[in-house]
Amino acid sequence: MMKYAVTGSTGRFGRTVIKTLLETVPASDIIALARDTEKAADLLPDGIEIRPGEYEDAPRLSDSLQGVNRLLLISSQPGAPMSRPEQHQNVIDAAKDAGVAFIAYTSFPHADTSTAALAADHQATEKALRNSGLAFSFLRNNWYLENDFNVIEAGANGQPVIYSAGQGRVGWTPESDYAQAAAKVLTMDDPKAVYEFAGAPATYADLAKAVSEATGKTFPVANVSDDDYTASLKQAGFDTNTALLFTSFQQLIRDGNLDEKSDDLQTVLGRPLLSLKDAVTRLIKK
Question: Which CATH number fits domain 143-173+198-259+272-286: 1.10.8.60, 3.90.25.10, 1.20.1630.10, 3.30.710.10?
Fold first, then answer.
């Protein structure tokens, strides 16, 4: 009997993974790991076993992973007292101690060679997994369409769409596509070691056009300097650190870090991806 475990199970990504697993796996074979087990009990379907899953607590993680065959390690959020590589190492070590055979890890595009600041933690985790002796798959997820909801919302309301990424292209697709693919890889008999998951590459000008077509709205679209982009975010109410963080995303896009042409995602999903216009339409209706 194969047992599957999912970390970060109360987040939107984790919940979608579990929902997808339930299409082919009995609830009794799914284990949800969560920092807040009471929250998980409220959010997750009945029949799934819920266990503690704090990345910082390695001994408890080892207990929680007992009996698990295949694990999805959803990367943690940055900014915690313990670094992400340390947190992820705890999970990997606990998995080894518990006898887990396979780990799928949500990573960053071309994490092994990328020079983007966002890639560093993922690069360290991929190295740790390669050195672990465990079987693994790196799920190198491109950009969630939801990451740019503020851009989509602005255009949908007839407000200016402003960016500084120039002609940089992004592999936008809904977060649910990445989560569904993660579930499918977790249950595969012979998954690849590396997947570059992405939608069709497109620019912010393409995204603005998709918003206009989806909503029938017209609005100004402007590629501006990084300084002006940061200033526009601060004017919109973001604090300085957040504005600078979002500007750094524009820089990594401009530098080509998310310009990916790969059919891995649609191959794993077994279906074509939505067009950018259709994906935008669906997101706006949520």
Answer: 3.90.25.10
